[in-house]
């Protein structure tokens, strides 16, 4: 398996999470061989993104937040492959919401709470958020394999951090020299 490792090359965080807009992100494909195709690399990018999302999920779990299901919304949620990758990598079932405009919908609900239309977020969610019946369950065999790959993924940032920082510095100096 090829592993795509996407990490923040500027701001070092103990969890390795992405630190927002304007951040200079570097990526790497680790483990490429002559047998790997563009399809392998595309899947590796998807897996790398889900591994990165899992880091956020692990922070929630470490804070004692119980995660029994993950809710999926938006364009990516329409993809059975994307939902299955998430279920397998998180080892947690994925359920789609009926509304595909998740971020905007959530912002509207928070606005409703702020305006007094709902007492709190829990009431807003209970009143408005609906779920589809379909549930994407993790595959036990794949989840176990992804657990091992996730451990390798986590080790890659520390192993490559300095090189990624240096590449960012070189890119910045190269950009300023060409202007």
Summarize it.
With 179 residues, this protein is of the alpha+beta class.
Describe the structure.
This protein is of the alpha+beta class. The chain has one domain (3-177): 2-Layer Sandwich (Nucleotidyltransferase, domain 5), CATH 3.30.420.40. The protein is built from five helices and five strands. A three-stranded mixed β-sheet has the order 3-4-5. A two-stranded antiparallel sheet has the order 1-2. Strand 3 (70-72), helix 2 (80-90) and strand 4 (94-97) form a beta-alpha-beta unit. It is globular and about 55 Å long.
Please identify which CATH superfamily we are dealing with.
ATPase, nucleotide binding domain
Using the 3D structure, state the CATH architecture.
Answer: 2-Layer Sandwich
Structural class: alpha+beta
The count of strands amounts to 5
Q: How many helices in DSSP terms? A: 5
Q: List segments where confidence is low: pLDDT < 50 over at least 5 consecutive residues.
A: 4-22
The biggest beta sheet, please? 3 strands, mixed
- The separation of the N and C termini measures 40 Å
How much is the radius of gyration in Å? 19 Å
CATH domain fold name:
Nucleotidyltransferase, domain 5
Strand content: 5-15%
* Mean pLDDT, all residues: 85
């Amino acid at each position: 398996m090829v592993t795509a490792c996407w990490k923040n090359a500027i701001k070092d965080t103990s969890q390795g999470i992405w630190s927002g807009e304007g951040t200079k992100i570097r990526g790497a494909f680790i483990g490429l061989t002559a047998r790997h195709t563009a399809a392998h690399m595309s899947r590796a990018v998807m897996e790398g993104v889900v591994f990165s999302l899992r880091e956020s999920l692990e922070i929630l779990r470490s804070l004692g937040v119980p995660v029994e299901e993950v809710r999926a919304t938006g364009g990516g949620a329409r993809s059975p492959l994307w939902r299955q990758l998430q279920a397998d990598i998180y080892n947690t079932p994925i359920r789609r919401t009926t509304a595909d405009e998740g971020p905007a919908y959530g912002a509207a609900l928070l606005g409703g709470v702020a305006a007094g239309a709902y007492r709190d977020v829990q009431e807003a969610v209970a009143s408005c958020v609906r779920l589809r019946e379909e549930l994407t369950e993790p595959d036990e065999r794949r989840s176990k394999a992804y657990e091992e790959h996730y451990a390798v993924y986590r080790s890659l940032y520390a192993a490559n951090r300095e090189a990624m920082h240096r590449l960012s510095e070189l890119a910045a100096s190269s950009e300023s020299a060409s202007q």
